[in-house]
């Protein structure tokens, strides 16, 4: 019987989940992310990662008309969570959390800025397709 090796927990990995423009996809992304992190032994990051992914994917679905994707990458002790969408316009800059406490909308990127170690966005253009990628990092200290 061949001997099986357990995967190297420090080895880099990446997942991409392509989603339709449908708010139900936010829940699918959140639950998929929980499973990915649990299977890779990163359960301590799940709650914060779910919040961040929910905000990023929700923005991609609510504020654009096309498809989107959740991308999750682990490398060198850093978890990067990102959302791609087909709209090349930059995201609205995050407001201050204190000013947004009672707001119904507009808290997403402020939460991302408050909970992530770093965040950003970049325009994307490939094969005639345009869009943007909004991402944030969690450092697993």
List keywords for this structure.
5 strands; alpha+beta; 4 helices; about 140 residues
Quick recap of the structure?
It contains 4 helices and 5 strands. It is of the alpha+beta class and 141 residues long.
Structure explained in plain terms:
It is built from four helices and five strands; from the N terminus they run βααββααββ. A hairpin with a 2-residue loop joins β2 and β3 (78-85). The mean pLDDT is 88. It has helices at residues 24-39, 46-62, 97-100, 108-115, and strands at 13-19, 68-75, 78-85, 118-126, 129-139. It starts with 12 loop residues before the first strand and ends with a strand. The radius of gyration is 16 Å and the shape is globular. By secondary structure, the chain is of the alpha+beta class.
Classification by helices and strands: alpha+beta
Number of helices: 4
Radius of gyration in whole Å, from Cα? 16 Å
Calculate the terminal CA-CA distance, rounded to whole Å. 38 Å
Mean pLDDT: 88
The helicity comes to 25-40%
Q: Spell out the helices and strands N to C.
A: EHHEEHHEE
Give the number of DSSP strands.
Answer: 5
Strand residue percentage? 25-35%
| Neighbour order of strands in the largest sheet | 1-2-3-5-4
> Uncertain regions: pLDDT < 50 for 5+ in a row?
none
Write the SSE topology.
Elements: E1 13-19, H1 24-39, H2 46-62, E2 68-75, E3 78-85, H3 97-100, H4 108-115, E4 118-126, E5 129-139
Antiparallel strand pairs: 1-2, 2-3, 3-5, 4-5
Helix pairs in contact: 1-2, 2-4
């Amino acid at each position: 019987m061949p001997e099986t090796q357990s995967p190297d927990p420090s080895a880099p990995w990446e997942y991409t989940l392509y989603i339709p423009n449908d708010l139900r996809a936010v829940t699918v992304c959140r639950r998929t992310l929980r499973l990915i992190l649990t299977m890779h032994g990163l359960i301590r990051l799940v709650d914060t990662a779910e919040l961040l992914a929910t905000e990023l994917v929700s923005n991609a679905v609510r504020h654009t008309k096309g498809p989107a994707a959740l991308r999750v990458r682990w490398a060198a002790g850093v978890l990067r969570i990102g959302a791609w969408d087909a709209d090349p316009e930059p995201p609205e800059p995050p407001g201050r959390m204190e000013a947004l406490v009672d707001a119904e909308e507009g808290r997403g990127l402020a939460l991302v800025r408050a909970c992530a170690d770093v965040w950003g966005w970049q325009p994307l253009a490939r094969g005639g397709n345009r869009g943007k990628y909004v991402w944030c990092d969690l450092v697993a200290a």
